[in-house]
Amino acid sequence: MTGNSEILIGNQRVRIHDEGHSAGYFHTYDHFQTSGAAYPERIIRIFLPRDYESEDRRYPVLYMNDGNTAFTKGGIVNQTWDVANMLGHFYQDHATLKFIVVGLDPVKRNREYTHAVWSGPDWGGLESYSSCIADWVKPFIDAYYRTLPERENTMILGSSHGGLAAFYIACRRPDEFGFGSALSPSFWVGVDHAEDSPVVKPDDNASLSRSQLILMFHNTLADVKRRPKLYLDWGLARTGGPHNEFIEERATVRGREMALLLQTEYGYRLGEDLFVYEDPKGEHSEESWGKHMPRILQYFTMALLHEGLARP
């Protein structure tokens, strides 16, 4: 059903609205609820392929943290990834799979997307958030939409703190999320000094290899059969404000450290289960991250087709 209407799906009220994008249309849950009191009500935006109603096929799923900036302008600097329009161009230019995209709006972003102390009192809710997405949101999507629910067909993606959260969720729940994409990820959280955020100062005596993040997921990362495939990227622009000068600088340093650690300590292989990209003009912004989406989707698509997990 397209057009503009409101219905119930699985006892959740959803708005069906078509904004005229060539790639598809939206199901938006403005008050998505779980039966767990520990998980807050949140907005979930689902972008369905244009042919979803006319086809009987199933689709791989891309889950996106910071869903409030995935399709429309929002966030601190009022920018967007513009995923809906990007997919229109991507589908037109490439013989590719089509995807269901699930945008997950944060409720308390700093808390939900961090696992360790970084700046201020609101942090450390990432474990609860990962459980909410893996135990409630994904099962709902798989139950009421025509997904390819297997881990191999499912990616979690995010940027900055959302990138840290994507890495965390993929490693914490690899049986549900076989792919994790972390753009400008905040691997520095719990490692570098960020009391005066957005100024993040390096701690030369700290390393990711001894961090809570790596120690928590050591066994998962060492398990070749179970661990997620990973995509990491960051930008090299250092002008344009403190987010580039400090946060993106730390994302670059710790991202490089993570990429090397994954290869030397855990046997990840570039071009096979690890993809790394440094953008010479990349900034710490939604507009910059949105430009990386075709690269990520090509990686996801190639992996799916190579393993025969889905058909174009």
Query: SSE order in H/E notation?
Result: EEEEEHHEHHEHEEEHEHEH
Sketch the major β-sheet.
Answer: 10 strands, mixed
Work out the helicity level. Answer: 25-40%
Spatial shape: globular
Mean pLDDT: 94
Strand content: 15-25%
Features:
alpha/beta; Rossmann fold; ten-stranded mixed sheet; 12 strands; 34% helix; 22% strand; globular
Word description of this protein:
With 312 residues, the chain is of the alpha/beta class. It has one domain (5-306): 3-Layer(aba) Sandwich (Rossmann fold), CATH 3.40.50.1820. The chain is built from 8 helices and 12 strands. It has helices spanning 67-70, 83-93, 109-112, 126-144, 161-172, 212-222, 242-264, 286-306, and strands at residues 5-9, 12-17, 24-32, 42-49, 61-65, 100-104, 154-159, 179-183, 193-196, 199-201, 229-235, 274-279. It has a 10-stranded mixed sheet, with helices on both faces. The protein has a two-stranded antiparallel sheet with strand order 9-10. α4 (126-144) crosses α5 (161-172). The two termini are 23 Å apart. The mean pLDDT is 94.
